[in-house]
Amino acid sequence: MLVRARILGALALALVLATIGATQTPTTPASTLTPELKAEVMKEVNRIVTNVAFVPGVDFSKWQEFMEGEKETVEKAADARAFSQAVNAALRKFGISHIVMTTPEMAASRRTRTATGIGIQIQPEPGKGIRVINVFPESPAYEAGIREGDLIVEADGQKVDNPGQISGEEGSTVSVKYERDGKTKAVKVTRRKYSNVRPETLTWVNPDTALIKIWTFDVGYSQANVEKLFKEASKARNLILDLRSNPGGQVLNLVHLMSILLPERAPIGTFIQRPMVNRYVKETGGAATDLAAIAKFTDRPIRAGNPRIDRYKGNVAVLVNQGSGSASEIAAAALKENLSAPIVGAKSAGAVLVSVMNPLPHGFMIQYPITDFVTPNGTRLEGNGVEPIVEAPGLIRWGEKDVAVERATMLLARIDLRQDRDGGN
């Protein structure tokens, strides 16, 4: 019970730290980016990276050396985006994930789950235009009648060949021509802020197989909606959990989903923190980079809890791709190691460090790691990712078959056959 209390306390702390940035309001337009302002931001970045960030085996004392190589670019940066890009060029030299500085605009977008534009996601089709593959609900594009599958061929009278032609400042307009079912339509769309939350969805692949798509574990994740979908899917013998292009998010949301899918108290994995490493080295003399040994020594894995709904009891397959990161990779690995769930798709991102979102002066924000992670079997996912047992294209183009779903469905059907043959075992 004490261990569980400590774990929940750690999760709660991580959640609070991750949302500190939400209280910071952007106050710095690009036109006011002065040397003094940049110095204020860099002072806090230097403190955090040098004294607070932690990953076993990573020497954060090299930060000043890395920054020296980008000093001239930082000094020349005339706007928030260029300034962030210069700082991030230095941060990337650590060779790890989850260490990045964001602009006030990007920080606000994450906090409010909004973006500015017409509200579509696109897929370029060279020589033709750009295909709309998603329209956000209640966005300017949706209200103008643009829908999934439409092919945008012109923007402001010019042939469209890149996404930049339809982006622009809030309040500006763009005249769009698009094709649908052999007909061309023209609309004028005013760019504005819109919600970029994509709700979790449930579709039925066949009468026995449900597919639940989870877009994020971050602010847009809805525990209530996920529970609703799993109630609807409870009758399915088989479930495909689609985590493709899910970049991860908050630990509490990860545990929420795993508690629906895994047996009670099943290990999800172990977060390797600085105190754990220090204690292990002091008491055993072992290496600070032997994460599997540290996890075994501390014996403090994060475990599945008690869900508010009945656990899903059918067979599970998981879809991942290059865009599946962080909490998505942890979820895939936990299901693979606890349930022998087949993983289908392309190798995941290998970006699995628990991090903190911290506000910086003038609305900037920095994300930095404080904890590493190993799976229940002791595998480090950072830099390695989750390997599928059956490969399929990581991304699908509009109108093409979803090979990953087809192959996952076939795998689950085979599991069904074996279970029927073996009397349900």
Rg, alpha carbons: 23 Å
Tally of strands: 19
Cα-to-Cα separation, first versus last residue: 32 Å
Largest sheet: 6 strands, antiparallel
Can you give the helix content as a percent range? 25-40%
CATH superfamily of the largest domain: 2-enoyl-CoA Hydratase, Chain A, domain 1
User: SS-based structural class?
Assistant: alpha+beta
Percent strand: 15-25%
- The CATH architecture of the largest domain comes to Alpha-Beta Complex
Total domains = 3
Structure, described:
- The chain is α+β, with helices and mostly antiparallel strands and 425 residues long.
- The chain has 3 domains: 2-112, no CATH class; 115-195, PDZ domain (Pdz3 Domain, Roll), CATH 2.30.42.10; 201-353 and 371-421, 2-enoyl-CoA Hydratase, Chain A, domain 1, CATH 3.90.226.10.
- It has 13 helices and 19 strands.
- Strands 3, 4, 5, 6, 7 and 8 form a 6-stranded antiparallel β-sheet that branches.
- A hairpin with a 2-residue loop joins strand 7 (173-180) and strand 8 (183-190).
- Residues 1-31 have low confidence and may be disordered.
Keywords:
6-stranded mixed sheet; 13 helices; 2-enoyl-CoA Hydratase, Chain A, domain 1; 425 residues; Pdz3 Domain; 19 strands; flat; alpha+beta
